[in-house]
Amino acid sequence: MAASNQNTSKTVTLIPGDGIGPECVESARRIIDATGAGVTWEVRHAGESVFKQGIPSGVPTDTIESIRKTRCVLKGPLGTPVGYGEKSANVTLRKLFETFGNIRPVRELPGVKTPYSGRGIDLVVVRENVEDLYAGIEHMQTPSVAQCLKLISRKGCEKIVRLAFEFARSEGRKSVVCATKSNIMKLTEGTLKRTFEEIAKEYPDIQSWHIIIDNCAHQLVKKPEQFDVIVTTNMNGDIISDLTSALVGGLGFAPSANLGNDVAIFEAVHGSAPKYAGKNVINPTAVIGSSIMMLRHLGEFDAAQKIENALLVTLEEGKVKTGDVVGYDSGLACTTTAFTDEIIKNLGKEPRTIKPRVYKPLNIPRISSDPVSVRPKSRRVIGADIFVESGLLPDKLGPALEAKAEGTALKLKMISNRGTQVYPDKGTLIDCVDQYRCRFVLRDAAGNLSDNELITLLNKLSPEHQWVHIEKLAEFDGQPGFTKAQGED
Ligand code: NAP
């Protein structure tokens, strides 16, 4: 992968990270230095040590300043120690610099035997990297009911879809598959599917189709060689990219690039694997692979190819094998250092069994920075979902709310409990919890709900019925901007 970005400097912010991070990163750094590539390192920190200094974000100012300057990061995994910080420093770093696309390639490697060996797996997961449940907006709506907001924007979808197609072109790949759960989450996951289907038309040279994410997981295990590029939402991508790494030998072999318009962060897919920390036994290939992606991003194509070739030769020859490949207790496993030394020794050699890919510059899509990406011609609010904390059962709560809504602009249409209609009763058997979504709609079907009308209803409901959350029911260009409850007519 090669990116056409504005980074003229070859200074890279190097974050050793936690657990096995420093060992992996040191390995990659030694190999890059041995190629003579013009990279200088600015070592900065994030993660556990920083949390323990009392910096709640886990990312100190001097690290942010360094990244703003270098625009390029090679990092080890970061952990969140129990009792420190609330957010993953890793996710914070990705989000602070709007690295919206996470490219996670896996490829069958010589000398790494798996149940899939010989099938030619060579695929890439392009994971949306800053939205979805990773927005991390969570609330306890009642003492016993937690909520996490799944935020998906049209703009975020456009960026990741365009990145996936551009990436496919840069590597001469044949197809891009969009994997979503749009059959269940029609608005959030559906936005990615719809955006994908629209933008795919601009890339007629690349085959494209949609697949439901659960079937995608099934197909990945059954016939992974059918896939080339898979574009998906953040959570789906997080899960299936661990799966795809296992197809080619495990997390020790899975590199990644977090790409944005301004900053790129290169790191392994794996975490800090604390049980192996400091033992000099782990497989550094994932971070080495990430550093190869980084060199191409920096325009250092020769050094990147040299390292890739030396890594492949090392795996082909199999003189040294890491514990994840041969078993840590087999007596055959080499140290991380020995594996690194062997790659350095093999710099300049070419692999026999794998043909190097031809890389073209990757055009990272830059779309309008206007926060508004969809402008409907008309909109109106036809009601509101009012979430209420209540210990009442639906047959008591429903009539009580109907009585409260008397004389207001709104009437109760239905109540659901965790998404399923429980009032009016449809004869279902729902084990309710103390959070109800109460859907009120305008009595005047052609009206447009005002804030004052809504506030009047809220004032009538409380304090007897404790409302905890409100969502307006909007229509954009006559289309409902909300979904029905299970069982709602
Ligand atoms: P993990 O660190 O990825 O480790 C899971 C397992 O994967 C390991 O036990 C090991 O499997 C294997 N593995 C990972 N890296 C390997 C390597 N380089 N060589 C050989 N085997 C490797 O996942 P985790 O234990 O769930 O997470 C640990 C911490 O890392 C958590 O704090 C998590 O939040 C953090 N994390 C950080 C990042 C990041 O910074 N990018 C990503 C993911 C997780 P075996 O046990 O089978 O040998």
Helix/strand/pairing category: alpha/beta
Tell me the name of the CATH class of the domain at 1-97 and 261-356.
Answer: Alpha Beta
Which CATH architecture of the domain at 1-97 and 261-356 would you pick? 3-Layer(aba) Sandwich
Round the mean pLDDT to the nearest integer and report it.
94
Total number of β-strand segments?
A: 20
Strand order of the largest sheet: 3-2-4-13-12-5-6-11-9-10
Rg over CA atoms, rounded to whole Å, is 26 Å
**Small-molecule components bound:** NADP nicotinamide-adenine-dinucleotide phosphate
Unreliable runs: 1-9
Classify the fold: give the CATH topology of the domain at 1-97 and 261-356: Isopropylmalate Dehydrogenase
Number of helices: 14
Give the overall silhouette.
elongated
Largest sheet: 10 strands, mixed
Look at the structure and name the CATH superfamily of the domain at 1-97 and 261-356.
Isopropylmalate Dehydrogenase
Distance between the termini: 50 Å
List descriptors:
Isopropylmalate Dehydrogenase; elongated; Alpha-Beta Plaits; binds NADP nicotinamide-adenine-dinucleotide phosphate; single chain; disordered N terminus; alpha/beta; 489 residues; 10-stranded mixed β-sheet; 6-stranded antiparallel β-sheet
